[in-house]
Structure formats: C-alpha cells, structure tokens
Amino acid sequence: MKHLLLLLAFLISGVMPLQAQKSRPKVKILMEIRPEVNYVTHLYTLAELGFSDSTYAAKYGGTLPQAAIDTLQKYKNYLTFGQGEGGMLAGQFFFGVSAEDIPNADSMRIVMDVVMNEGRKTNVPADVMAAVRAIAEVYVTHYDAYLKNVYPQVKADMEERRQLLSQKMEEHSFVKDWERVTCYTWHRGDYHWLLYRAGQKGPSYNNLNDSTNTVWYNQDIDYQLAMFSHEFGIFLMQDSIDPIVEEMKIYTRKLDSEHDLTYVPWSAFESLACWYNCKIAGKETADYRAFGEADVKTFCRIFDRLSKEGIINPTELYHKGIMEYLNNNDGNK
C-alpha cells in the first residue's frame, strides 16, 4: 500500500520513476507553424508591445491600421511581459490566444467573448473591462485579413528553418539526457515548438501549456539548440519547483534588504536549467553565456558546491541555492 501511494504521489506531481515507463513510445520534439501565435506576435511587434523587428515592420507594417496600433499601445502596460512577470492581460491576449485553435475571425470572436465573460464573472474593474473590449475588437477585426494577406507568406518564410530544426531534433537526445540528470521522467507526450516570424527582439521561449513552447524562428542555431534543451528542462522540473518559486516570491518580497530581490526566484530556476544543461553538454552552453541578467555564474557556483555535498535533487538544489544566494547578498538582513 505504501508503494502504491508513493507511485500515485509521483503521478500527481508530474514526474514518475524512470523504471515505471520503460515501454512508453519515443517522445518526439516537434517543430510547428501555426497562425495563432504568429498573429499575436504580429500585433505585439507592430504595436511594439515588448517586441520589435525592423525588418518585419518594414515588410508588413502597412497590414495593420494605425488606429489598431494606437489602441494596443494605449494598453501596453496591460499586455507586455518578461522575466516571469507580466501585465494583467498578457495571459489572455498573448498566451491564451496563442494556445488556441482559431481558424477565422468568427472563432476569434468566440475566444474573445469567453475572455470578456470571465472578466464579468470575476468583477474586473470597469477600466480594465474597457481595455479588454478594445483589445478584443482589434484582435477580431484584423484576423481574417492577416490570415489572407500575411500568414501564407510568413509561413513560407519559416518552412526551410522548420525543416532544419526538425532534423536537428532527430539528432539530439534532450529527453533522455534530462531524465538522466534529474531522475525525473517526462510523461506528457510529444513536446511542441511553435515558430513565429515577427518579433526578432522580444521575450522568446514563452510556454503556452505543459508541452508547448514558442520561439522566434531564426535565432543563432547553437543558441537555439541550447535553449531547446534548457526549456525542456524547465518544463520537466516545473511541477516540483513551481510551488517553491511561488513560496520564494513571497519570501523575497518580505525581506528587509537594500537590494531588489524579487528577481531571485526566476533567476535561480533559469540558472538551475543552465547548470544542468552544462552538465549534459560537458561544457559551457550558449544559454549559460546568454542569461547574464539572471546571475547564472553565481548560482552555478552555488549548485556546484551543493552537488559536491551530495545534494542532487532539483528541488533541494533550487531551495538551498536560493537561500545561500540570499545570504550572500544580505537578503536576510
């Protein structure tokens, strides 16, 4: 009975013992092009909502009326996001829409109606509801034109890259590598990457659900492959670490410190993924070099020391790593 309860606990937590799934089918990492995330990043890029792409804007800037851009710009603070934080409507209008299957403007209207109904049910303030209605109208009004005049070309622009990345995924063993170093097992089926054309500069690698992520299509290939591995590791570990992230967010906000420490929970998680990625590759990886704002080097030195003490569980590394980092940065004073 004890063993049965333990197995159920693993199932609920999102990970399973490696020996429990020896006969599972091979997990595929799939590269896909879909209109929804491409439309959202099209809007975000042309309205400069934390995304920018001068080449894209020069080619497609005329496909979105200035009035629509002005409306989106007016509510920029509601829509932008990055580094684990975001405006109160980013979840609905970036992540929510990108994750849906929306074949036309009529379907987009249905999605927007759901968003507005949820706002009414939760007694969202009148000014926020006004923003929701205005943004929703932009999303609905211009979707069919985008599907007809823009999406076929951007899809064609990305097809060669999609095929290259698909080939690279066949050559790599991200799933097995991460399962080996974390002792967790992936059980969510195939992992999906949605490529988007607009927004070269902006917060890329934005997950939509437990097995779907998004990325600007044409990054440096070494960096992109390192980040594909990095993000898979984040997804694999998040069920066990996300509760601690929330706990640490509350903890850091309460600390009496002269430093802003609210970035630490996000920084520690990204750094832990970088640390594991380097262990898998046997060298410094491109994500390790790119996450300077996360203080990766400091965290990785901490994780190195803790692992030498025999601490190898991801959640324990994460929690103890944060506490040591905060102590070193006078976060407990």
Fold and architecture overview:
Helix content is 63%, strand content 6%. With 333 residues, the chain is mainly α. Strands 1-4-5 form a three-stranded parallel sheet. The protein has a two-stranded antiparallel sheet with strand order 2-3. β2 and β3 (85-86) form a beta hairpin. α2 (35-46) packs antiparallel against α6 (90-99), α12 (221-254) runs antiparallel to α13 (264-281) and α15 crosses α16 (314-328). The N and C termini lie far apart (46 Å).
End-to-end Cα distance:
46 Å
Principal-axes shape call: globular
Radius of gyration: 21 Å
Task: Write out the strand line-up for the largest beta sheet, numbering strands in chain order.
Answer: 1-4-5
Secondary structural class: mainly alpha
Overall mean confidence score, pLDDT: 90
Number of strands: 5
Continuous helix count:
16
Helical fraction: 55-70%
* Major pleated sheet: 3 strands, parallel
One letter per element, helices H and strands E, the order comes to HEHHHHEEHHHHHHEEHHHHH
- Which stretches are low in confidence, meaning pLDDT under 50 for 5 or more residues running? 1-14, 16-21
How much of the sequence is in beta strands?
A: 5-15%
Summary, kept brief:
By secondary structure, this protein is mostly helical. The chain has helices at 2-13, 35-46, 54-60, 66-74, 76-79, 90-99, 105-121, 126-141, 143-149, 151-171, 174-182, 221-254, 264-281, 286-290, 296-308, 314-328; strands at 29-33, 81-82, 85-86, 191-196, 212-216. Helix 11 (174-182) packs parallel to helix 12 (221-254), helix 12 (221-254) crosses helix 16 (314-328) and helix 13 crosses helix 16.
